[in-house]
Amino acid sequence: MKEPSKEAQRWIRQSEDDYRFVKYLKKEGDFFDKGCFMAQQAGEKALKSCLYATGKRRVIGHSLYEMADELSKLDNRFSNIVSESKRLDRFYIPTRYPNGIPGGSPFQIFDKEDLNKALEDLKMIVDICRQYLEDRGALLSK
User: Fold this and answer.
1) In angstroms, rounded to a whole number, what is the distance separating the alpha carbons of residues 29 and 35?
2) Which CATH number fits domain 4-136: 2.60.120.200, 3.40.1260.10, 1.20.120.330, 3.40.50.2300?
3) Rounded to whole angstroms, how far apart are CA atoms 74 and 79?
4) Domain boundaries in the chain?
5) Euclidean distance between CA atoms 98 and 108, whole angstroms
6) Tens of pLDDT along 54-100?
7) What is the rounded CA–CA span in Å between residue 139 and residue 5?
8) Residue 140: is its pLDDT beyond 70?
């Protein structure tokens, strides 16, 4: 098994890189559907980093809500991001597939407001995950 701290580090770094990409898309003011999906992905990676830090060998699944709920049983701070996790979960399918929404295509449906809210939710998740990892001593020097 890989060392839990090292695996957590890999996942949080990728999450933070994805987070920077979402901020870039917001600045560009386009590709809202892709930005919302990437926000979900970045949140997923951040939460997975925390689960790996607990010593989990495999973290399977894509639901931020389920991960935040599982982590909240270990550390109460994750209770503070359950709502944000639920909102980001909504972007997993409909932002990518036309049959994930009742009409139109994702690039037509998602807008700046969706991306702004996704970015706010993502920031809260990444911040809490990073703090959790720092408190556990799971972050290595860059």
Assistant:
1) 10
2) 1.20.120.330
3) 10
4) 4-136
5) 10
6) 999 899 999 999 999 999 999 999 999 999 999 999 999 999 999 99
7) 7
8) no
Record the tokens describing residue 14, joined without a space.
Answer: 């990728």
Residue 10 CA to residue 76 CA, distance in Å, equals 24
Q: Encoding tokens for residue 7?
A: 């695996």
- Cβ atoms of residues 101 and 109 within 8 Å: yes
Cα–Cα distance, 7 to 22 (Å, whole number): 23
What predicted TM-score, i.e. pTM, was given to this entire model?
0.95
Split at pLDDT 50, 70, 90, the class of 139 is: confident
Q: Give the three-state DSSP class for 94.
A: coil
Nearest alpha carbon to residue 85 among 58, 106, 67: 67
Nearest to 40 by CA among 131, 103, 122: 122
Residue 142, pLDDT score: 52
